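User: Need the bound-state model for NDP:
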Amino acid sequence: MINTRKTVLITGATSGIGRACAEIFAQNGFDLILTGRRNDRLKKIAAELSTAFNIEILPLCFDVRHWKETEKYLGTLSGKWKKIDILINNAGLASGFSPIQDGEIDDWNKMIDTNLKGLLHVSKCIIPLMIAGRQGHIINIGSIAGKEAYQNGNVYCASKAAVDSLTRSMRIDLLNHNIKVTQIAPGAAETEFSLIRFKGDKQAAKKVYDGFQPLKGRDIARIIFFVATLPPHVNINDMVITPTAQANTVHFNRK
Ligand code: NDP
Ligand code: 8X3
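Assistant: Bound-state model below.
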């Protein structure tokens, strides 16, 4: 256990990678600000983890796509919650899986507004606090999809390529403020991701992981925890993490 009483803000903590991050940081004695839109889940996770690990948790239910909403919750943090040591910009999604010519405007807006603008909205609120505290670590969850485009990935890939680029820019802009900036770019992880991409179609979601062992949220969370607890002078800029059975966005070793 690394006992620090540091505070970690995790967006999209109601499921998958974000939820697994909440668990691992809680187990190690960090206080948490957890966000997501599903308030019932948020409250349950906060209650369970704060009791189990004797930590403080501030659950905040809002939609990162909306600047005014994000500002209402994250722009008004007070007391101890203003000192955020680590921001994990994790909230994100894919919506739809069509060739570009068949894509739906609503899906495109969801992905761009969440994966890119949502990350910006949250960062806009937290960066000034980190600058004032002269330290911090921002961990952006990109994707292997931001490194290489694949068929039908179009707007999702573009939104994650934007995260890839933005992460590099943020690292330069925040260099003189002693703020680390890291991108974690996972490959196939079995979370609610595919269920949401395929709009509740369980068969289609299951097929994505057929015949190989995908990553779990916990696998990525362990790596994020490692990255976030390195000594102050060490930063990992970028990591691509795949299941052993995945070489890139196209090649899988399926049995
Ligand atoms: P999940 O669907 O399991 O989790 C996504 C999380 O994001 C949920 O907690 C959801 O909470 C939150 N979220 C989505 N939209 C919003 C919004 N508008 N406002 C606030 N919160 C939101 O998927 P993953 O855990 O897999 O995804 C986490 C991140 O990892 C995403 O950025 C995804 O793109 C990325 N990623 C995932 C990979 C995978 O294969 N699973 C691979 C590479 C990257 P709620 O619905 O309660 O708002
Ligand atoms: C999720 C991984 O390859 O399905 O970002 O786009 S992939």
